[in-house]
Amino acid sequence: MVNEGVYSNPGRRRKLPSFLGLALGQVPKDHPPTLADKLHLDPAALDHTVRRKFSHLLDSSYRPFPFADLPVELALPILSYATGCSQGTYRSLLLTNKGICDLVRSDEMLSGVSVILSTPRQLHAFKWYLETWPEAISQIHALWTICPFSSERETQASIPVSATITQMCTKIRSLACHPDVLYHLVDRSPFQHTRCVDLTIDSGIHWSAIMNSFHGAEFFHQIQRLHFLGAIFPYYDMGPALNNLTRMSMAMGLVTNIGSVKFGGVLKSPKLQQMVITTRLTGDEQEFLAEDVHKIDPRFSVLYRRRRWREPNLWHESFQDPDRFWNQATAEKHVLDPARKRPVRERNQRWGHPPSDTESDSVSDTPESDEGLDLANEEIWPGLDIYKNPTKLALALAGRRNPA
């Protein structure tokens, strides 16, 4: 039973817990005043802050950029480029004014907006959005559903949600997803994703299973650009010949044994023009890798994977400019990353092979920074014998030195 005296006596107030009091606006007496408090209590301070922040607007010589006066031929390309810059830029344009809001919400503008869902929470929220406003489905042409920093359990739990979203969006031209999402996509009838030509996959594919599914072969034979994000292990099959494949890229991480990867099938694709390998190797090891891949096929090029790279950003940029990544790979085909202070190794001294007696085991004097490291894509194949030594394995996974 509630003690009515506590609530009926106006002169007697119960003290709320600190977190609940802050939520209800009861700031403790010893709580320092915030800037909002000062501006609320001092109109002069508010006026000073506004004048300082927008002082350029008070200048009599200031003239805003006459965007509304631009010819339509100039205004529309500018807005089209701005809508595709990022989701944040697109949201800002929606809040600019009614005229610009109406323009960026048109079908022509929405076709250039990419949807990046990189967390399970975003996947569930977007699924609810599509179920609530199904009229938006036809405007989605680029979709990213890979959650790079999720645990294996979270990834597996989010695959049905990703598959549902992907199946709903039938006008996708560019898709980034987990391989299991593809199995859901191509193993059902009717097959409606006939416009997808750019595919990014989080890891390897079991080619025999997916090509023998109901629509697996039909789907992959329409793909023109194929990207593998997860590092490819040796002895992996890169797939069969694909009818319309023109460009293909794969991440090799710190793998050096490129000769054992099975490229025979995909290299027979009739329209294939370019194969790009992204690597973390530097100096001599990168040079050796480049020489090895050029012996396999002259269409290969090796591109150093910079630490500032973020796969969702690269994917988004490729949707804006499909040739940007490939042109960069062509320009840097014979430009190697500057060698750091690392041990000098001969060609036959690869991971998994014993070093010579004269080989130095020193490492870089300046340790590499881990800032910007995308752990979701850092997979290596250092040689079978490394797993017998936990210390070597830990050093290899940290990327600090090459295990001997």
Intertermini distance: 74 Å
Q: Number of helical segments? A: 18
Spatial sequence of strands, sheet with the most strands: 1-2-3-4-5-6-7-8
Number of strands: 8
Radius of gyration: 28 Å
In the CATH hierarchy, the architecture of the largest domain is: Alpha-Beta Horseshoe
Question: Would you state the CATH class of the largest domain?
Answer: Alpha Beta
Low-confidence stretches: 1-31, 338-394, 396-404
Order of helices and strands: HHHHHHHHHEHEHEHEHHEEEHEHHH
Structure classification: alpha/beta
Average pLDDT for all residues:
73
Biased composition (Acidic residues): 358-375
Biased composition (Basic and acidic residues): 336-349
Region (Disordered): 336-375
Topology (elements, then pairings):
Blueprint lengths: L3 H5 L9 H6 L11 H7 L1 H11 L1 H4 L13 H12 L3 H8 L3 H7 L2 H4 L4 E2 L3 H13 L9 E3 L7 H17 L5 E4 L1 H8 L11 E4 L5 H5 L4 H6 L3 E4 L18 E7 L20 E6 L3 H14 L3 E5 L6 H10 L3 H8 L58 H9 L6
Parallel strand pairs: 1-2, 2-3, 3-4, 4-5, 5-6, 6-7, 7-8
Helix pairs in contact: 3-4, 10-11, 11-12
Short account of what is shown:
With 404 residues, the chain is α/β, with parallel strands linked by helices. The chain has helices at 4-8, 18-23, 35-41, 43-53, 55-58, 72-83, 87-94, 98-104, 107-110, 120-132, 152-168, 179-186, 207-211, 216-221, 283-296, 311-320, 324-331, 390-398, and strands at residues 115-116, 142-144, 174-177, 198-201, 225-228, 247-253, 274-279, 300-304.
